[in-house]
UniProtKB/TrEMBL annotation:
<keyword id="KW-0694">RNA-binding</keyword>
<comment type="function">
    <text>Antiterminator that binds to cis-acting regulatory sequences on the mRNA in the presence of histidine, thereby suppressing transcription termination and activating the hut operon for histidine utilization.</text>
</comment>
<dbReference type="InterPro" id="IPR015111">
    <property type="entry name" value="Regulatory_HutP"/>
</dbReference>
<protein>
    <recommendedName>
        <fullName>Hut operon positive regulatory protein</fullName>
    </recommendedName>
</protein>
<keyword id="KW-0804">Transcription</keyword>
<keyword id="KW-0010">Activator</keyword>
<dbReference type="InterPro" id="IPR036482">
    <property type="entry name" value="Regulatory_HutP_sf"/>
</dbReference>
<comment type="subunit">
    <text>Homohexamer.</text>
</comment>
<dbReference type="GO" id="GO:0003723">
    <property type="term" value="F:RNA binding"/>
</dbReference>
<keyword id="KW-0805">Transcription regulation</keyword>
<dbReference type="Pfam" id="PF09021">
    <property type="entry name" value="HutP"/>
</dbReference>
<comment type="similarity">
    <text>Belongs to the HutP family.</text>
</comment>
Length: 138
């Protein structure tokens, strides 16, 4: 499989995982396992600025828990970097607001993608945003 195709498939899987509810998440995990894709997802919420560190930590913990990554500095750094990139894409919209949503992580071979799906705002006046980051690890 070409690298650009693998990158696209991993990114797509991460986005889909970030958009699922619990039932859909379990079904997608089974489907992706059959396609040799490792995936994880985890919910989060809180005030954006104070939550950035927690979102990165949750992405790493979820990826390790679901065996998407190994317990190495390289793998953890890749997830942290991809998550930070995904967060940076929505920072302008989210800063100063409460956010809630889900993190999706996907990996096939050397390719790791992290997607964050956010509802940003107050009460029912939410803006929706998705950020996506990708890293390649040996």
């Amino acid at each position: 499989m070409k690298d650009d195709q693998a990158s696209k498939e991993v990114a797509t899987a991460a986005i889909k995982m970030s958009l699922t509810d619990r039932k859909e998440e379990k079904e997608l995990k089974k489907e992706y396992a059959a396609e040799d894709l490792k995936v994880a997802a985890v919910d989060f919420g809180g005030e954006f600025t104070s939550s950035v560190k927690k979102v990165i930590e949750r992405a790493i913990v979820a990826a390790k828990r679901e065996s998407v990554i190994k317990d190495t500095h390289t793998d953890q750094g890749a997830v942290a970097g991809a998550t930070k990139e995904a967060l940076s894409q929505i920072t302008d919209k989210a800063i100063g607001f409460n956010v809630g949503g889900k993190i999706g992580v996907a990996r096939r071979g050397d390719h790791i993608s992290v997607a964050v799906f956010f509802a940003i705002g107050l009460l029912h006046l939410n803006e929706m945003a998705i950020g996506l980051g990708h890293r390649a690890v040996p």
